């Protein structure tokens, strides 16, 4: 079972978008923002997660896109959802 981290502050919810949490968007005025850019390398041999839109570093390289996505979520949970 997948778990989700939801941060509540001053009546606002913050969470990493997941289709399972989509109903939360209907609770009020919702704003969805890009937190990073997960992209392949130019030669396609690896993936990175650019966390600059969230004020973070470039993570990677990773051998698979899923590893880059997992690292992205881990970084966001540790640094932005608190």
> Could you spell the SSE succession in H and E letters?
EEEEEH
Radius of gyration (CA) equals: 14 Å
Structural class: alpha+beta
Overall number of domains: 1
Termini gap: 22 Å
Strand order in space, largest sheet:
3-4-5
What share of residues is helical? 10-25%
Sheet having the most strands: 3 strands, antiparallel
Name the beta content range: 25-35%
Shape type = elongated
The count of helical stretches stands at 1
Uncertain residue segments: none
Number of strands: 5
- Mean of pLDDT: 91
Topology at a glance:
Blueprint: E1 6-9, E2 12-15, E3 37-40, E4 47-50, E5 58-62, H1 65-79
Antiparallel strand pairs: 1-2, 3-4, 4-5
Structure description:
The protein is an alpha+beta fold and 82 residues long. It has 1 helix and 5 strands. The chain has one helix spanning 65-79, and strands at 6-9, 12-15, 37-40, 47-50, 58-62.
